[in-house]
Amino acid sequence: MAHLLSDPEALRRPGEKQFELSGWIDTAPFEDLVGLAIQTAADGRAVLSMPFTVKLAQGGGVVHGGALTTLADTAVAIAIKTLLPPGTIFATIELSIRFLAPAREGQLTATAQVNGPQGRTFHGEAVVVDDEGREVALFTSVFRVARGQGFGE
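and the corresponding structure tokens:
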């Protein structure tokens, strides 16, 4: 399989996957781009981290809200993956994030847990903290498993 980052022509080949993850519980190319790392993942819980870098800052010099949302959303997705068979297709269908404090440096950590499934639906929560344990953001989300995969329709 071609890897999109090393073979941009893979986008033009019909039917060919653009990339493959190393394993079911792994980060995708975008998540690698922003520096996400999985610390732990098991039993409907996950802890992911992301370093503050200037490229993730908004104009005021603090981490961009989109980067924090990516960290939290991915932490919930990884927590869900710990409960699903490999290859299950699912996606975020709703999310909410409340920004509590600016992050200007260091490592950010998201701790996520999920409830479900209830039919095809999972509800997730994540708390993002900075190096000093200060809460930076609170995140909630709803994920849905695609139809036809053995979950209650």
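(Above: one complete record from the training split.) The two ends are 33 Å apart (CA to CA).
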